[in-house]
Amino acid sequence: MYQSHNQSLMPEQDMAYTVLADLKRVSREYAIAATESTCPDIRQLFTSLLNSTLRLQGDLFQTMQQLKMYTPSSPALKQEIDKQLRQHEQTFQKTKQFLQQTNGNVQQFSNLAGQHQMQQASMQQPNNPYYM
Amino acid sequence: MILPLTAKEMEYIVDSMSNEDLLMKQCAVTAATANNGSLRQICSQMQQVHEQHYQALMSALSYHQSMAPTQPQS
User: Fold this and answer.
1) Hey, is the C-beta of A14 within 8 angstroms of any chain B C-beta?
2) ipTM of the assembly?
3) For an engineered disulfide with A46, which of A18, A33, A108, A110 has Cβ 3.0 to 4.6 Å away?
4) Could you name the domain of life of the organism this protein comes from (chain B) (predicted)?
């Protein structure tokens, strides 16, 4: 007994997954090609092909999800998100301090450069605002 | 002003054409063999889009053909 006229070498789920995997790969390749292009028209071409490919990948993904062909990864736990938030809040605070200090140095340097004759006065600042 | 195509850009264009060619075929086979109607439909639509992508890449290559140098540049 023959199954039907639809005979494939692979189950349809695997076929769809192969296309999805290739769309993901091709999206990455278009992104790389766009960033490494010199001609503005070629960069524009790769950018529009990237957008079009992302749209195809998203549509296929949604179809596969509706057909229960794709199991998304399990949800992240609340305590894990809390931990990450706390860690990155600290990192961001440190980065802000670094930026303030760096910007302060830049400002001081440009002040110094503009005041050649008042060299001593500008080097002996009693309060360094960027350490506050 | 349109700049001449670099060797790197040409490689990316032809690699992309191979990718689009493969995707066209994969979509055609899936559209022809899948039992599920919505999967068949999306694959046949995607096949057409990949054909358009291929044409766009081909056009870019032929557009730059005329201004390409015939001797290696220093």
Assistant:
1) no
2) 0.93
3) A33
4) Bacteria
Q: What digits encode the pLDDT tens for the residues A91-102?
A: 999 999 999 999
Question: What's the predicted TM-score (pTM) here?
Answer: 0.79
- CA torsion through residues A17, A18, A23, A28, sign: positive
Grouped pLDDT means (10 residues each) for chain B, 74 residues: 89 98 97 95 98 98 92 81
Cα separation of A49 and A31, whole Å? Answer: 9
Q: Which domain holds residue B50?
A: 23-63
Q: How far is A15 from chain B (nearest CA, A)?
A: 6
Please tell me the total count of domains within chain B: 1
A122: buried, middle or exposed (CB in 10 Å: 19+, 13-18, 0-12)? Answer: middle
